[in-house]
Design brief:
By secondary structure, this protein is α+β, with helices and mostly antiparallel strands. The chain is built from 5 helices and 25 strands. The chain folds into 4 domains: about 40 residues; about 90 residues; about 90 residues, YbbR-like domain (RNA Polymerase Alpha Subunit, Chain A, domain 2, Beta Complex); about 90 residues, RNA Polymerase Alpha Subunit, Chain A, domain 2, CATH 2.170.120. The strands form 7 sheets. Strands 10, 18, 20, 21, 23 and 24 form a 6-stranded mixed β-sheet that branches. Helix 1 runs antiparallel to helix 2.
Length: about 325
């Protein structure tokens, strides 16, 4: 077997042998690589190095009953003393089977003292010696996995009607509940009503559509992804009535007005409209509100049927006078 001295001697001869500059550069580079390699292997043979390694850790628990709310610690930082070869293999993760920590009721505690793991670490690291564990404890957050039923309700701002239509029936969501499963504390902090958005505009027909349910918060699983929403609509009719103006609170019957009727425009669902019903709206002129400067009164509209809307009156005021 050729010794290291023989190799170096041959390299020296090659260097002094007439050759191109590129060849000499290659020889110099090879010398550096070989000398570095010799130094490296020589250094690894020493047995008093102090180093820091991160030993693998595995936390086990019943994942059907519990759920971790954040990433679990997977390494334990340790300061150790040992030989170069041993420390190098540990640094690359060789010969280090994870320390297993089994938790029976992980929701009852949120930390573990690392000193309790020294007994498992020592034989796994031999012949490397543990000087001390760099962290006093490892922390985690594991909660009981629970399921809760939440009520589904439509967000009214997520639908808009055509100006000539109104909702004429209860809004039905089927199913009207959803079950969410996740960490106990997170589930308990949630509002028990989940508002769903239909995102339907310009509605002028009865609705029966499937809509997506809101995405569940992080770490929570939903039993459903969608639900059916349905309701009926009705068309509004434009009604224009001429209504007799009632004079109220006048001192006597000698008072009259220059206009005796007002045009009242309003909307009402076609299912409620009765052409013979003229008592839905009343228009009054109240003497107590008269402007003495010009004897005018603003007309007041009294709605006597709550199913009508968008009421307008013309004119908005009248002038009154007394017949002597």
């Amino acid at each position: 077997m050729i010794s290291a001295e023989d190799i170096i001697e041959r390299l020296k001869k090659s260097f002094y042998t007439p050759s191109s500059k590129d060849e000499k550069f290659k020889v110099v580079a090879l010398c550096i690589v070989i000398s570095t390699t010799f130094w490296f292997f020589s250094a690894l043979n020493k047995d008093d190095y102090i180093s820091q390694i991160n030993y693998p850790l595995a936390i086990e628990f019943d994942q059907n009953e519990y759920i971790a709310t954040r990433d679990l610690p997977s390494r334990i930082p340790i300061e150790v003393t040992g030989g170069g070869w041993d420390l190098m293999t540990r640094s690359f993760g060789f010969n280090m089977s994870p320390v297993i920590v089994s938790l029976n009721q992980p929701d009852k505690v949120n930390y573990l003292m690392t000193s309790s793991l020294r007994g498992q670490l020592t034989p796994r690291l031999d012949p490397v010696v543990i000087n001390f564990i760099l962290s006093d404890s490892i922390t985690f957050d594991i909660q009981k996995k629970v399921s809760r039923t939440f009520k589904l309700s439509l967000d009214p701002s997520s639908i808009s009607m055509d100006d000539s239509y109104r909702i004429a029936s209860p809004i039905v969501i089927a199913p009207d509940t959803v079950v969410w499963t996740g960490p106990e504390r997170i589930i308990k902090d949630l509002d028990r009503v989940i508002y769903v958005e239909a995102n339907i505009t310009g509605i002028d027909r009865d609705i029966k559509e499937e809509i997506d349910l809101p995405k569940a918060p992080s770490l929570i699983k939903s039993q459903l992804a969608s639900a059916m929403i349905s309701f009926e609509v009705v068309r509004l009719l434009d009604v224009n009535d001429n209504i007799k103006i009632d004079l109220v609170n006048f001192p006597d019957s000698l008072w009259t007005s220059d206009i005796t009727q007002a045009a009242v425009l309003y909307k009402i669902a076609e299912t409620y409209f009765d052409v013979t019903d003229s008592a839905r709206v009343r228009v009054i002129a109240d003497y107590t509100t008269m402007n003495p400067a010009d004897s005018t009164l603003l007309l007041k509209v009294i709605i006597q049927d709550e199913r009508i809307e968008q009421v307008q009156v013309s004119p908005i005021s009248i002038r009154v006078f007394k017949n002597e």
